[in-house]
Amino acid sequence: MNESSKVLTLFSKIFYNTNLNLNNNESKNIVKTLDNIETTKSYTDSYTSSHISDLNNLTASSKRKNILDDLPILKKMIMNEFNLFKNNILKYTDNDFRITTSWISKSVKGQSSQYHNHNNCMYSGIFYVQTTENSGSISFENFENTRFSLKPSEYNLYNCREISINPKNNTLLFFPSEVYHKILINNSNITRYAIAFNLIPVGKIGKESSDSFLEI
């Protein structure tokens, strides 16, 4: 490749990974709040309990889907970071976003989740409250059709079909809601706690002259 050669990552899926500045006491208080919220086994719309051999091996989810309303300071921090992302990187400055649903993702040793994506939202996110190196990374996979299945000599962002992110405490991750993902097995002795959430744009969406114009 010469100096004039360029690699263009056209039509890519835009992820955002950062850390929130919470101290140990703040994190412990969040864990205490989550401990008191009822959870149930979680599986996606494409699976029912009859398709899964052992529900005990599935990550649990809170029955309530507005968990961040119990944590207004954390919710504000998450939205402040998302606004930086959507304004400065995505350049969606004409629209605000709001969180529609938020829930606990809880897994003990041996638990994981199925591949799934999220409907009725544009971006999704996860804030990791309590985790460790072996407590379950998040894996993303591209299920779109490709013409040939080739094995590269080295995997990178241009050729991989799957990528895993190993989060730490206070990691905050945003990703497009249509991307399929799953929680890998918790091989640690701690309870892995994360808060997942979905976001939609609000305001005027699209061209007002278009038949697809929408105002939320």
Write out key terms for the chains shown.
globular; Jelly Rolls; 216 residues; seven-stranded antiparallel β-sheet; 12 strands; alpha+beta; 2 helices; three-stranded antiparallel β-sheet
Describe this structure as you would to a colleague.
By secondary structure, this protein is an alpha+beta fold. The protein has a single domain (18-46, 55-195), classed as q2cbj1_9rhob like domain (Jelly Rolls). It has two helices and twelve strands; from the N terminus they run βαββαβββββββββ. The strands form three sheets. A seven-stranded antiparallel sheet has the order 1-8-5-10-4-3-2. A three-stranded antiparallel sheet has the order 7-6-9, with no helix packed on it. Strands 11-12 form a two-stranded antiparallel ribbon. A hairpin with an 8-residue loop joins strand 11 (204-205) and strand 12. The longest helix is centred in the middle third of the chain and has 17 residues, at 72-88. The chain is globular, with a radius of gyration of 19 Å. It starts with 15 loop residues before the first strand and ends with a strand.
